[in-house]
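Re: [ENG-882] Designed sequences occasionally contain unexpected residues at chain ends

Forwarding the minimal case from QA. C-alpha cells:
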C-alpha cells in the first residue's frame, strides 16, 4: 500500500505544480482518478500516508528544494523533466522527514520515475537519491531516525 500511496502523492504534487492547481483540489482529483482506475482502492492508512507526504512536502518545500538543488549535479530545475523533479521532491522530503528506511523509499521512487517519466528517468532519480543518501551518511544532512 505504501507504493500506491507514494504514487498518489506523486500525482497530487505533479498536478499541483504543473497545472497550478490548489493542493486540496489536486488531492481530490488525483484520489478520484486513482479510485476510478485501480482495482484495489487505497485504504485509509494508505490515504493518510499519502496525505502526510503531500502536505509534509508543501510545508518543507523551500528546504527540500534547496537541498535537492545542492545535490543534483549539472542540472537546474528548469532543465529537469517535471516528472523526475516531482519524484525527487517527494522522495527527498520522505528521506529527510519520514522514518522510512532509505532502500525501499529509493526503490519505489525509481519505479514511479520509470512508470511516469522518460527512458532514463529511473537511472537519473536513482543517481540523485544515492547522492542524497551519501550526503546523509557523511553527516552533511540530518534526517529523522529511520525504522529498522
Amino acid at each position: 500500500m505504501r507504493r500506491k500511496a507514494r504514487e498518489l502523492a506523486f500525482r497530487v504534487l505533479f498536478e499541483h505544480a504543473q497545472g497550478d492547481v490548489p493542493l486540496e483540489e489536486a488531492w481530490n482529483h488525483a484520489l478520484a482518478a486513482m479510485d476510478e482506475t485501480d482495482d484495489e482502492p487505497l485504504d485509509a492508512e494508505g490515504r493518510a500516508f499519502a496525505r502526510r507526504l503531500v502536505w509534509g512536502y508543501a510545508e518543507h518545500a523551500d528546504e527540500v528544494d534547496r537541498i535537492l538543488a545542492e545535490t543534483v549535479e549539472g542540472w537546474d530545475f528548469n532543465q529537469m523533466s517535471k516528472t523526475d523533479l516531482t519524484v525527487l521532491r517527494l522522495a527527498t522530503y520522505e528521506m529527510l522527514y519520514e522514518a522510512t528506511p532509505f532502500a525501499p523509499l529509493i526503490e519505489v521512487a525509481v519505479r514511479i520515475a520509470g512508470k511516469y517519466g522518460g527512458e532514463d528517468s529511473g537511472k537519473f532519480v536513482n543517481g540523485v537519491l544515492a547522492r542524497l543518501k551519501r550526503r546523509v551518511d557523511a553527516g552533511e544532512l540530518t534526517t529523522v531516525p529511520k525504522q529498522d
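QA comment: On inspection the terminal residues look reasonable. Helices lie at 2-18, 23-37, 44-71, 82-97, 102-116, 121-137. Proposing we downgrade this to a documentation issue.
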